[in-house]
């Protein structure tokens, strides 16, 4: 599978998550306060809640339902009740286009 265009940089709002679905994979895409774009699995591993409806703070997104925060860089939960990570997908910026390949999950520590 190859990376697919999901939006332009101009369509993302800084420090807000936006939901996209690519080849049946739901992801939350975030333009953080440093200008970096992240793509993580959109479903909280604790409560099956959309993370794109959560709150972005720095390089984390917090699930609105139960308060679990996840690292946008690693997908790891930073607090309970979630204890399983969400997938993190490779993001490529090509000019103004944001490209994501849902088959490329980054293995970060």
TrEMBL record:
Record has Oxidoreductase as a keyword: yes
Alphabetical list of InterPro entries matching this protein: Rieske_2Fe-2S, Rieske_2Fe-2S_sf
GO molecular function, one term: oxidoreductase activity, acting on paired donors, with incorporation or reduction of molecular oxygen
Record keywords: 2Fe-2S, Dioxygenase, Iron, Iron-sulfur, Metal-binding, Oxidoreductase
Rieske domain ranges (all copies): 4-100
Superkingdom, taxonomy of origin: Bacteria
UniProt-listed PANTHER family: 3-PHENYLPROPIONATE_CINNAMIC ACID DIOXYGENASE FERREDOXIN SUBUNIT, FERREDOXIN-RELATED
Name of the protein: 3-phenylpropionate/trans-cinnamate dioxygenase ferredoxin subunit
